[in-house]
Specification:
- Two copies of one chain form a homodimer.
- Chain A is built from 15 helices and 19 strands.
- Chain A is α+β, with helices and mostly antiparallel strands and 457 residues long.
- In chain A, a hairpin with a 5-residue loop joins strand 8 and strand 9.
- The first copy, chain A, is globular, with a radius of gyration of 22 Å.
- At the A-B interface, strand 9, helix 7, strand 11, helix 8 and helix 10 of A face strand 9, helix 7, strand 11, helix 8 and helix 10 of B.
- Chains A, B: It holds the Pfam family FAD-oxidase_C.
- Chains A, B: InterPro entries: FAD-bd_oxidored_4_C, FAD-bd_PCMH, FAD-bd_PCMH-like_sf, FAD-bd_PCMH_sub2, FAD-linked_Oxase-like_C, FAD-linked_OxidoTrans_Type4, Oxid_FAD_bind_N, Vanillyl_alc_oxidase_C-sub2.
Chain lengths: 457, 457
């Protein structure tokens, strides 16, 4: 039997795709820089036993497996390797349990983030991780990349919401990690080792997450600054003031003008606006009022030209839309290539200045939006995809930005991951000892290099 | 040269102890059940380079190393093995950096938890993890066990506050994990793999922690219940109500009477009190008032005989003292043996009932105190240490409690660790695949089994 026949015998013919016209749509994620190959098959298992079967067959035949969720990734970590089997979790999309009294839920990896958020909201509960692609990315993909989002400044990233995992290992065995309790230290923290491992250590087949009480509808403060330094200073002062807003986003001049153009609105900022800061508080009632009052004051004293607060959720949503549309708005000017990095919160202004310089050097538009509350920035380079020269310049700008990041004491990826675009940078950031430890762990769990070989390191 | 001479040549003679009268005081931690041997030497390195020297010498000679902080552990994880070198971090007690603007600090492992809390408090900052031994345990020990405390219901455990580590590996090389930024996904989450690994994977020599804004002085609510079920119900309702108190502790009748006797006070509970619930809110102002009002109401509607709230911090401290003195208070009746486990929050009453049954069966006093907000309970068995029979019954009760815990969907350790007392239970909880993965990782990082062999698994 061929590989495809063996897979079909275990999973059913409809769960195995070999038609290149179809499999080609599974070749890559949303990162244009990352290389990708052509899979020999795409499999769509429905349960853990089927995942085990796929792993065992591929292990026996020495065929690499690339696990994939929705394909919304931005580092090529779920890109096909020539001749691989793409293991796509989209059919494993059941919410298996919502235990409201213990504030936890158990889900399969293919559940879409937004569907899950909506489901727990009906129980008055909240699943914080909210990557920008939350209306189509999957929880499994979020686990794989340790996804973040806009919530992180107050609620942390994916790993902070996960209690336990079920994982199919390279030998086809099922490993259960973690627990259903709030605390637990029985053995190594394997849960958090698998989270963010980008599909290189196993296939996650079930996820137990901790939920939070649903927060109050947020109030929103928007502030505009005529210099980047003043905006950076406002961020530092807000942190220093001991405030923990539920959202704190920054947009530079390029992002603002793109969003204004796209929304056909003025955002009320006028000319000469170098940066916008958007903050929310979901503390509710007096606490939220107080928090945003202080934020508004701090922004003013840091030199904001305009600072405005609303407690009307609809108006807040509208203000936030400017932030949310930036990537789409940039498409008017060309193809976008978004970078992902994190700097200490006090160094945000220096990063933005660095991006301005790089933009001038490469002659391309670079718009910076980011999660100012945790220093996680997304400089986005716009280029003409039909021009090899522009692509090369964009590629160089992408690297130049990371150079600045390391000089500021930052990290080369805050939430998108290493994947197939930052392996060299990972090596630079963590050094030879770090890489050796990575290889040792990979080798301990996946000695035949079955899962996602060549990704990350 | 002998081992001790070689160590002395590297560290200086005053940093190497071989006198058995002195080394004997380093043989074990605070857990009476755990076996321990006699070290051939105790070393007190002052910096990372000295730790590297110790590791290289011991690796060359095949002498096991047991890393140790203050010795406040409760699982024997830092107990000596015959002929080992105890690597004690007490001289590495510098706070290397407090970066208030980025809310982070860098410390050496020997810093005492309370000293560090006090140091950051001066900057208006807060380091949450607060194990009961916080006035003498060290941050390094907290990392090793992933320590918890009373803060966890709102602020999480040690791993939730750590950004990065410096670790000396079994080959003497220095590994840097993590980062100084809030977010970061560059590679596997090695930081969290080392946290809670109980000294089996390396020696932690530097720790970068995330800090929080100093919370408000807490308000306190105390409620007494005439049945355990009513107290358990109150916990479930508080969680279900969407409240996140900054502390939520439970005491059973045995704990209450011991504390009352010790403090020569009545706690105002009267006779027939089966359980006390203590809650705090550090949200400040109106928010705290509202939170504790709701908690008080919920307690009453769950059947509390008495519920009382104070916003006077001194009075709150006094009420909390009843909880804090329990272990000391129990010493009047004999030696205590405290267990550590975690159950889903809805199962706390069943656990307490189980402990009552076991107490009757073994004929020994079992007092239960615990962190009700996260289901992390500490049933404490009191026995006569001079009676072999009583010790044997205490030992059996210790295991019987864990049996109940697993039947309730709990975990065998919430914050004290596995160490040298729960290896069999770890095996039961995580199964053969889990153990195999542990061994594979241990073998990948410490192939000669140099660090703390025989502990955990």
């Amino acid at each position: 039997m061929t590989l495809a026949e063996r897979l079909a015998a275990e999973l059913g013919a409809d769960a195995v795709i070999v038609d290149p016209d179809v499999t080609s749509s599974y070749r890559h994620d949303m990162m244009p820089l990352a290389p990708y190959g052509s899979p020999q098959a795409v499999v769509l298992p429905s349960n853990t036993a089927q995942v085990q079967a796929v792993v065992r067959i591929c292990a026996e035949l020495g065929v690499p497996i690339v696990p994939r969720g929705a394909g919304s990734g931005l580092s090529g970590a779920a890109n096909a390797i020539d001749g691989c089997v793409m293991l796509v979790t989209s059919r494993m999309k059941e919410i298996l349990e919502i235990d409201a009294d213990n504030r936890l839920a158990v889900v399969q990896p293919g559940v879409v983030n937004l569907d899950f958020r909506n489901a727990v909201e009906k129980h008055g509960l909240f699943y914080p991780p909210d990557p920008s692609s939350y209306d189509w990315c999957t929880i499994g993909g979020n686990i794989s990349t340790n996804a973040g989002g806009l919530c992180c400044v107050k609620y942390g990233v994916t790993t902070d919401s996960v209690l336990g995992l079920e994982v199919v290992l390279a030998d086809g065995e099922v490993l259960k990690t973690g627990r259903r309790t709030v605390k637990g230290v029985a053995g190594y923290d394997l849960t958090k080792l698998f989270i963010g491992s980008e599909g290189t250590l196993g296939v996650v087949t079930e996820i137990t997450v901790a939920l939070r009480p649903l927060p109050q509808a947020p109030g929103t403060t928007i502030a505009s600054f005529s210099t980047i330094e003043a905006a950076g200073d406002a961020v530092t002062r807000i942190v220093r003031e001991g405030l923990v807003p539920s959202l704190m986003e920054i947009m530079d001049a390029s992002s603002i003008s793109a969003a204004e153009e796209y929304l056909k609105t003025e955002l009320g900022t006028g000319k000469g606006c170098a940066a916008l800061l958007l903050c929310q508080s979901d503390a509710g009632g007096e606490a939220a009022r107080h928090e945003l009052e202080v934020i508004e004051q701090v922004c003013r004293s840091a030199g904001a030209d305009l600072a405005y607060t609303t407690h009307d959720p609809a108006e807040g949503q509208m203000l936030l839309q400017a932030r949310r549309v930036v990537l789409t708005a940039l498409e008017v000017y060309g193809t976008w290539l978004t970078d992902d990095l994190c700097v200490p919160r006090t160094r945000i202004a220096e990063l933005l200045t660095g991006c301005e310089r790089i933009s001038q050097e490469c002659g391309l538009r670079i718009a910076v939006v980011g999660h100012a509350g945790d220093g996680n920035m997304h400089p986005t380079i716009v280029y003409d995809a039909s021009s090899e020269d522009e692509f090369a310049r964009a590629r160089k700008a992408f690297d130049d930005i990371l150079e600045v990041v390391l000089s500021l004491g930052g990290t080369i990826t805050g939430e998108h991951g290493v994947g197939r675009i930052k392996q060299d940078w990972l090596q630079r950031e963590i050094g030879p000892v770090g890489i050796r430890v990575h290889r040792a762990i990979k080798n301990a769990l996946d000695p035949e290099n079955l899962f996602n070989p060549g990704s990350m390191f």
